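Message: I would love a firmer grasp of how sequence relates to backbone shape in proteins. Thank you; the sequence and its tokens follow:
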Amino acid sequence: MRRLILMRHAKSSWTDPGQRDFDRPLNPRGLRSAPLLGSWLRERGFVPDAALVSTARRTRETWAGLGFDAVPAEFIDAIYEAAPATLLEVARRAPDADTVILIGHQPGVGAAAEGLLADPVDDPAFWAHPTGATTVMEFGAESWAAIGWGDGVALDFVTPRALE
């Protein structure tokens, strides 16, 4: 069994209009949300064994805010602005770990969550996939290379707003 935690980065700042999108940091709300999401994952027993994180600043800051300091993380350029198919390929190359968290961006993360699940999550926020949206899914595959579209079973879903 393989468990994938698919997360959109926490709320980012738009205060500097001249700043490159890639370099945008988390805003104060995002800095509060990331630790809440980390606590939520711990409370439910969804602690990752490995992390695949976009190299953009806001995803790296989200990862740091989750508080899983001992978990090895790989920062991957291809996750930034990735299409769902790219996110699936990144997940298929995940380290040999039971639970992997992948932190990326919209619209790819939301579309990948929809496509990977056999049945959608029964929550209106799932379709909007706001910042910090986190879907936990499980696959019956023996390896990450064997996961595919429509193979996942949703175990849980949350947004930071639900935790505040």
In short: The first strand starts at residue 2 and ends at 8. The domain at 2-163 is CATH 3.40.50.1240 (Rossmann fold). DSSP finds six helices and six strands in the chain. The chain has one domain: 2-163.
